[in-house]
Amino acid sequence: MAATDQVQCFICGASNDAHLARCGSCGASLDAGMAELSGAIEAPTGGLYQETFSWRAVVVSAVALLVLVTFVLALLPAVVAGFDPQGFYGVLIAAAIYFLVALIVANRSSVATLVEPAVAALAVVVPTLFYLSYISDVHHISMLTHFFGGALMVLVALFGAIIGEKAQLRRATA
């Protein structure tokens, strides 16, 4: 087969045999009409698209989570006698903290940070749940509740990051 019987993929640039319907590298259609359409399709420029991953945002989120969780769940009960974050209420209080930290980090970051607060939440959720289990002397919760509470904390952090990014986009376009 001669070099003239080759077709270049308009998506990945790989060379393919002319008789093929799809690219052997990426699977895109090699139809000439599709190649013309591909020039008209633009990559998304606005909205909630994350192009890079920022370890700095993960560290900032994790430190903020550790500081606030420590303050609210460990230090505040020592000062306020009626505040006792045990059991499921402790999980809900921690989830609210995770939401607020993710919201603030995503809203104040200079780049899109949708995933970073959730990654930080994954790192901090185990010590948080361990501490909540450790301090429980009256309101014990099951391991399954710990698991779902941890999943709730991570999902709430992701939700907070999405709302924070939307607020940042709204502020930037106004």
Please describe what this structure looks like.
- With 174 residues, this protein is mainly alpha-helical.
- Helices cover 61% and strands 3% of the residues.
- The protein has 5 helices and 2 strands.
- The chain has helices at 32-40, 55-79, 87-108, 116-135, 143-173; strands at residues 6-8, 15-17.
Throw out a few tags for this protein.
174 residues; two-stranded antiparallel ribbon; 5 helices; 2 strands; 61% helix; 3% strand
Low-confidence stretches: none
Head-to-tail CA distance between termini = 58 Å
Whole-number total of structural domains: 2
Largest sheet composition: 2 strands, antiparallel
> Which secondary-structure class do the elements indicate?
mainly alpha
Strand order of the largest sheet: 1-2
What's the shape?
elongated
- The total strand number stands at 2
**Helices and strands, in N-to-C order?**
EEHHHHH
**Could you report the average pLDDT, rounded to the nearest whole number?**
83
Number of helices: 5
Fold topology:
Blueprint: E1 6-8, E2 15-17, H1 32-40, H2 55-79, H3 87-108, H4 116-135, H5 143-173
Antiparallel strand pairs: 1-2
Quick take:
Helix content is 61%, strand content 3%. The protein has five helices and two strands; from the N terminus they run ββααααα. The radius of gyration is 24 Å and the shape is elongated.
